[in-house]
Amino acid sequence: MKALVYTGERAMSYRDEPDAEAAAGEALLRVDAAGICGSDMHAYHGRDPRRVPPLILGHELVGTIVGGADAGRRVTANPLITCGHCDYCVQGRQNLCSHRTMIGMTRPGAFAERISIPRSSLVDIPQDMDTRAAALTEPAATALHALDLSTRALARPLAEARVRVIGAGAVGLLGALLARSHGCFELSIAETNPLRRDAARRAGLDAVDPREEDAREAFDLVIDAVGSSHTRNAALQGLRAGGVFMHVGLQDWASEIDMRKLTLAEITLLGTYTYTTADLRATVRALHAGVFGDLRWVEERSLAEGAAAFADLDHGRSAAAKILLRP
Known about the structure:
2 domains
């Protein structure tokens, strides 16, 4: 089968790979589309020691089951492969399973014509669901999970909050669109890339260049979908007393923040990791219902063009918050 393989720092190769085969308890999927995630870019930059080349990356997917009684059924998938019996799994908090593995990280991912994945990871979708929407389930579920945690911590309903999202990548953009659908209209997205600011505006969002404004103590909720040392400090600086800082992005692994403000202003700092299976199912329903809008900001390319897509994202040449690769 053809696959896009991460072979080293800033190196991707579209080449022949052994055909994927379903092990016991697994399903073989024909990949219909797979999205490039920020974590795939971290690997591409050589900054993720968990993803060791050569490796087929990709964990945001929609596909069609090949073989068996349910052949032809379209599905998406939870890329986290969990043990199913630890306390977290039993509680429905599979994202916290300490035994979890992941496609596109510890086993071959979705940048290929076919992929094998445990049947327990499959997530049903409406069979008439748009492929583009279905392929966004994973990043949209990340945004949904983060927003759900944020709203539990806010002192007042989300619709009454002034919200800033940092980063107009897929998770940031999807989070902002979801917040707007919940009636939050005092909302803006901060992005330094002018192409992505324009894309966010075309999606109907207020997009600003944070370098050209003074946003100190202006927001009740800040969602950092970048996770750099700079954005962490900007997020904390932008919060009003009693506000909520939701940390999603992982661009930098560690940095110092203003713990004095965190304490004296009684800021709630929350970390979030991916989603639960329940989040994925809720996200499928929301995407199918059009909650996130028309998704015209998503770009599609062939899998054979995948190396160029990574390079374009690396150099900021693409306005797309999400590029989907189609085998």
